[in-house]
Amino acid sequence: MVAARITVNGEETPISPAAPHTTALDFLRERGLTGTKEGCAEGECGACSVLVARPGVNKPTDWVAVNACLVPVAALDGQEIITSEGLATAGEPGTPPTLHPVQEEMAVRGGSQCGYCTPGFVCSMAAEYYRPNRCAHADPADGTDAEHGPNGFDLHALSGNLCRCTGYRPIRDAAFAVGVPTDEDPLAQRREQSPPAPVATEYTRDDRAFLRKGTLAETLRLLRERPDAVVVAGSTDWGVEVNIRSRRADCVVAIDRLPELRELRVESDHIEIGAALTLTEIERRLDGDVPLLAELFPQFASRLIRNSATLGGNLGTGSPIGDSPPVLLALEASVVLADADGEREVPLADYFTGYRQSVRRPGELIRALRIPRPLSPVVAFHKIAKRRFDDISSVAVAFALDIENGIVRTARIGLGGVAATPIRALTTEAALEGRPWAAQTVEAAARVLQAEGTPMNDHRASAGYRSAMLGQSLLKLYAQTTEAVSA
Ligand SMILES: Cc1cc2nc3c(=O)[nH]c(=O)nc-3n(C[C@H](O)[C@H](O)[C@H](O)COP(=O)(O)OP(=O)(O)OC[C@H]3O[C@@H](n4cnc5c(N)ncnc54)[C@H](O)[C@@H]3O)c2cc1C
Ligand code: FES
Ligand code: FES
Question: Is 287 left (phi over 0), alpha (psi -120 to 50) or beta?
Fold first, then answer.
């Protein structure tokens, strides 16, 4: 096996002697690439953002911005990354480098004061600069809306980057001013070739190992031999455990590049989504075909996190406040579990068995999620949190309703944050089904919904607030649907 290595700004660098848990951030900084900063070490500030060459959605390669503080450098074995230092073009000896267009706009529009956050902003901005079809979203009529520039720049690209001193207006000005990459731009050209293929990795130091196999079958055999192994996909949860809670694993097994976990198939009777596709990949590949998922994505963390986070990881944590389970419950999804003996399919409603517990056995992986079709037409995802974006839910409610001739034929409601596990609001569903979609029914059902689950008091919200938000959520859905009908 070839020694683990990574290409940084075009230069191949061995990963050794980093420890298997060393983050890409620490690795880069130890090699003098100190443009990549540490602000929080838990995915919240974006100061550590770097670009990774990943399989593209509309071109062979996309430049994807990720949080270098969360990803172990060993997970990037064989991969290609660009840091803020690699964006500028070196000049003749003795002359300064030519700034990259996003760096130039940040500089001339006053997008940087102390500069601590700037390299991270610049990398996130560059990823959006190179997003294929960005300009297709531009509105030539009047240019900008609150979240998109006249150049098609989607401000959500910066939702994972914080700045403490400049203020966001000049940063937004810079984002909305960037043009289109030229044909000579080497990073634009790079998109036309395939990204580096995933490589099998066996990286060990001091009795600790980071392992990546090439196929699902090999991975499942390995997990049978090493039941103690920690499985890692996007590492957005695991990275926080390593950095903030100092967790170390003797053996980490990466599954994020396994082809069998990265398929997305739209069949006549169901949609199958690979557990290791990132949320950004799913969002862009489905392109609104599952409207309830389309409502979820912008409310889930930030673009930086969504560029790595997976559905398998969101279910794998078993968290009662994960945002995808309420949505997947409302969609009546099932979980495809795989181990060395084969596969089984479990309805998500039967998957969680207790606080952070599930029916998943040791050595078993989530291979995919299956969503039955046809999809219910009336959907909504209400995430109640303290901030509009990049926050953890206090309560999350997902609705999927079939309303025919004014009568609720089926109602599926998924709840998060109101019990030890994500749950279906079965009593409320029964209170709606077969009844007219009218104020009287909805008000009665909202009172039933308020009593679902066993909400707790904690630092995010009181039990009373959580219950109140459940009822309110159904009233809001009703208002939204009646507004849509009367509009
Ligand atoms: C700043 C920040 C903001 C966040 N915001 C949100 C948010 O708004 N909403 C939300 O729900 N979550 C949020 N999260 C949590 C996290 O991003 C999600 O849970 C994400 O989906 C985890 O996916 P991952 O691939 O990164 O998981 P990883 O960190 O790789 O793994 C998480 C766990 O799942 C297991 N696992 C991973 N894949 C599989 C698989 N295929 N089969 C079995 N087990 C598996 C791993 O063993 C591990 O225990 C946030 C995290 C951060 C750092
Ligand atoms: S250091 Fe804050 S997101 Fe990585
Ligand atoms: S320029 Fe100082 S934190 Fe952004």
Answer: left
Give the per-residue pLDDT at 487.
47
Helix count and strand count (H, E) for the chain = 15, 20
Yes or no: say if 83 and 8 are a contact pair by the CB < 8 Å rule: yes
What is the number of residues in the chain?
Answer: 487
Q: Which residues contact 142 (CB under 8 A, 6 or more apart)?
A: none
Average pLDDT, integer, range 353-367: 96
**Alpha-carbon span 201 to 217, nearest angstrom:** 16
For residue range 247-277, list pLDDT tens digits in order. Answer: 999 999 999 999 999 999 999 999 999 999 9
On the question of pLDDT at 31 being above 70, the answer is: yes
Q: Determine the distance separating the centroid of ligand 2 and the alpha carbon of 22, expressed in angstroms.
A: 14
**Average pLDDT of span 330-354:** 97
Residue 458: per-residue pLDDT:
86
Angle at which helix 439-450 crosses helix 463-486, to 10 degrees, equals 160
Q: How far is the CA of 99 from the centre of ligand 1 (A)?
A: 35
What is the pLDDT, as a whole number, of residue 255? 98
| 350 Ramachandran zone, left/alpha/beta (phi>0; psi -120 to 50) | alpha
Q: Is 233 in the pocket of ligand 1 (CB under 6 A)?
A: yes
- Stretch 380-395: mean pLDDT: 87
Give the ligand whose atoms come closest to the C-alpha of residue 362.
1
Reference 383, options 396, 374, 364, 371; nearest CA is: 396
Does the beta carbon of 291 sit less than 6 angstroms from any atom of ligand 3?
no
Q: Which bound ligand lies closest to the C-alpha atom of 107? A: 3
Burial class of 388 by CB neighbour count within 10 A (0 to 12, 13 to 18, 19+): exposed
In short, whether 116's Cβ falls inside 6 Å of ligand 3 is yes
Asked if 205 contacts 20 with a C-beta cutoff of 8 angstroms, the reply is yes
161 CB under 6 A from ligand 2? Answer: no
Question: Which ligand places an atom closest to the C-alpha of 36?
Answer: 2
Sign of CA dihedral 56, 256, 269, 481: negative
pLDDT score, position 139: 59
Structure confidence by residue, pLDDT tens digits, 78-96? 999 999 999 998 888 888 8
